[in-house]
Design goal:
Length: 287
């Protein structure tokens, strides 16, 4: 959506009309149509974007508002943030691939108790009467409890890794937008912080705007060298995203090891209680 609006703006289409054109497309998303309706009802574009109530839409709202307040060209600003959002999409795909192994491990080990029972039946032992007895009811309660705890524990570890969505270096990109109107770096930084706070863009880390952080080091380096600051900001944003991708690789590798803890503590004992003991008891009863 951001890329298509940017293209329409470059073609001279006014912003409200650009969203109306997108909403008229047969394949337009529901969110795009809702945004166009809010704009047609008189809502400012930035507020209409933020009302979509998702982190990426709030980022677009901040970008739009920054461009308007700073007098920066809207189309390049939208194109820049659209590029950052696409990189986030690629990072999500990469994360999904990296986490596929731990997910498959949890599913496979979680199915072991049932497979053990089926194997016992195929070998000629019937663990069902054992499970229907008083001892079997205790085994089922303990085994199912351990299995449930282990699966929930493993799932929580996966969700923790999957929920780390943000665009690394986004504060550099937004300062790049704010500087597009010719403001001084300190003024542009203040504008970025104000708009991020106003729209509640949680993907932007306020800590990045503190003195001593890489953002101010980049500003100082550009000032002392007498070089344009905006290309340096984009280079730094790209470097932060490379570091974020490397961190994702490390976290995915750690998850492959950490997920073994709930499997060893809960799921494998559940396999013994639900799958192995009933078969052994049925063997002894048959003897």
């Amino acid at each position: 959506m951001a890329e298509r609006v940017a293209a329409l703006l470059r073609g001279g289409v006014p912003p409200p009309r650009a969203f109306a054109v997108l909403a008229a497309d047969i394949g337009s998303a529901e969110q795009t149509s809702a945004i166009a309706a809010r704009i047609a009802a008189g809502s400012p574009v930035a507020l209409a974007l933020a009302a979509a109530d998702a982190p990426e839409w709030r980022v677009l709202a901040v970008t739009w508002q920054l461009a308007e307040v700073s007098g920066a060209p809207l189309a390049p600003a939208l194109q820049r943030i659209a590029h950052a959002l696409r990189e986030l999409g690629q990072l999500r795909e990469r994360r999904s691939v990296l986490l596929a192994g731990p997910r498959a491990t949890v599913r496979m080990v979680g199915a072991l108790p049932v497979l053990a029972l089926l194997l016992g039946v195929l070998l000629g032992f019937d663990p069902i009467p054992v499970l229907m007895s008083g001892t079997g009811a205790l085994l089922v309660a303990v085994g199912v409890g351990l299995l449930g705890v282990g699966v929930k524990w493993s799932t929580a570890l996966q969700h923790q890794a999957e929920s780390a969505d943000n665009i690394a270096g986004l504060h550099f990109e937004l300062l790049w937008v704010a500087l597009g109107g010719g403001a001084a770096p300190t003024v542009a930084c203040r504008r970025v912080v104000d708009q991020v706070d106003a729209f509640g863009a949680e993907w932007v880390d306020f800590d990045g705007f503190r003195q001593g952080r890489p953002l101010f080091a980049t500003i100082a380096a550009a000032g002392s060298a007498g070089v344009p600051i905006r290309p340096l900001l984009l280079d730094q944003a790209a470097a932060e995203r490379v570091a974020s991708a490397a961190k994702l690789e490390r976290e995915a590798e750690r998850l492959g090891v950490r997920v073994l803890l709930p499997l060893g503590v809960c799921v494998l004992p559940s396999f013994l209680v639900l799958g192995v003991l009933p078969v052994l008891l049925s063997m002894f009863s048959a003897v």
